[in-house]
Design brief:
This protein is mainly α. It contains 5 helices and no strands.
């Protein structure tokens, strides 16, 4: 995984800062593991739900998606389960549905304006 060396360097630059502030590190980790992946997937999968339902679903989806995707990446790519690898999987699982959601909104907005 040599192609991830620049990203690893950037994270190692920020990591000493987070070592001194454990409360911020815990808050960021909680959001990354238990909330943001599910929130981005609820935007793609569930269009007509209110914010309370979206928040509740995001916790359950995040736990399932993060766990399964880390285990899947471990088996598929034969990588160890480490903090850096887990962070890359979580960021991928969070960013991909967010991009899909915004592309759907962009394409949907164009179709509505054409009609």
């Amino acid at each position: 995984m040599e192609w991830l060396a620049p990203i690893r360097g950037l994270i190692e630059l920020v990591f000493p800062f987070l070592e001194r502030l454990p409360a911020i590190r815990v808050a960021i980790a909680f959001l990354l593991v238990f909330f943001l992946p599910g929130l981005s997937w609820t935007g793609v999968l569930f269009r007509q739900i209110n914010i309370i339902e979206r928040v509740a679903l995001s916790f359950g989806l995040s736990i399932a998606i993060v766990t399964l995707s880390i285990l899947f990446a471990n088996r598929l790519f034969d990588t160890g389960i480490s903090g850096f690898n887990s962070l890359m999987v979580i960021l991928t699982v969070t960013i991909v549905p967010a991009v899909v959601y915004y592309l759907n909104r962009l394409i949907g907005g164009r179709k509505e304006s054409e009609e």
